[in-house]
Amino acid sequence: MENGIVIRTTGSHYSVRTKTGDVFECRIKGNFRIRDIKSTNPIAVGDRVEFIPPSTTSEGLIVKISDRENTLVRRSTKLSKRSHIIAANVDEAFLIATIASPRTSTGFIDRFLVSTFAYNIPTKIIFNKVDIYDENMQEDLLHLCDIYKSIGYECLCVSAKRGDNIEELRLRLKGKTSLLAGHSGVGKSALINVLDNSFQLKEGEISTSHLKGKHTTTFAQMFSLSFGGNIIDTPGIKEFGMFDFKKEEVALYFPEMKKRLEYCQYYNCTHTHEPNCAIKKAVEEGEIPLERYQSYISIINGEELKIEKWEDR
Q1: Which of 101, 121, 212, 276 is the most buried (most CB within 10 A)?
Q2: 3-state SS track over the chain
Q3: What percent of the chain lies above the pLDDT cut of 90?
Q4: Could you tell me the domains of the chain?
């Protein structure tokens, strides 16, 4: 029996890396289940597992998964009543966003931040492709940075093409296991290639007709960085469906709302129609950005993002 960490998942097959750096291709036992998790993928990148190395067969056999420190989960796109585990046991998440080619909506950003906040995963926002932004886009970028910095999220503006702030990003990744997520086309693979030139990941193109990204990463995979740490590259996320969130709890995952909840007149205030609501007052006075409040309303109403205008099909 050996211990290892899952570094790649492709359907029912898993690549497991040991402490010595050896990688074994494995499958799971036919009756393997994870307690209390109704997910489409029972094992995710980042899981720590016990496995029987291959001997008479070409594949090893995963027999046990260690308790997870955390997971990032979203609703399965095809099975709405089940979840999909994006990754497990991460130290932090980096949401890669772009102002154009393609544009990342605030609704998508906020759903991602709500989920990572709920699952206790520290998150930073990386705005990529600053080399292509015109004056109006630069104003949009500054506006979004002001919004999220005021809430407490660190924002870093980078260019994989030009090299802006790449060294700063390396410092934030060093020595940690970090998840990179975002729409297709925002430049995750390009960033990984420029962060560590030992990687040669395929980089996607942008459709000239729709200005949307084309998928290049088709499965989650963990890479060891030459300067220390691990990075998990994930397939482009078309939508971020909220999974197993109770309507009355959503405000707890908006930091700027959470600190004001005790000032609402009613303990079960939904922050929509009730009198003497501290949240609505803060929105009216400009202390909570309207965009964030609109994201909150869409989430508690169970509305899906109209993603067609934002990214690829």
Answers
A1: 212
A2: CEEEEEEEEECCEEEEECCCCCEEEEEECCCCCCCCCCECCCCCCCCEEEEECCCCCCCEEEEEECCCCCEEEEECCCCCCCEEEEEECCCEEEEEECCCCCCCCHHHHHHHHHHHHHCCCCEEEEECCHHHCCHHHHHHHHHHHHHHHHHCCCEEECCCCCCCCHHHHHHHHCCCEEEEECCCCCCHHHHHHHHCCCCCCCCCCECCCCCCECCCCCCCEEEECCCCCEEEECCCCCCCCCCCCCHHHHHHHCHHHHCCHHHCCCCCCCCCCCCCCHHHHHHHCCCCCHHHHHHHHHHHCCCCCCHHHCCCC
A3: 68
A4: 2-65 (2.40.50.140), 71-233 (3.40.50.300), 247-308 (1.10.40.50)
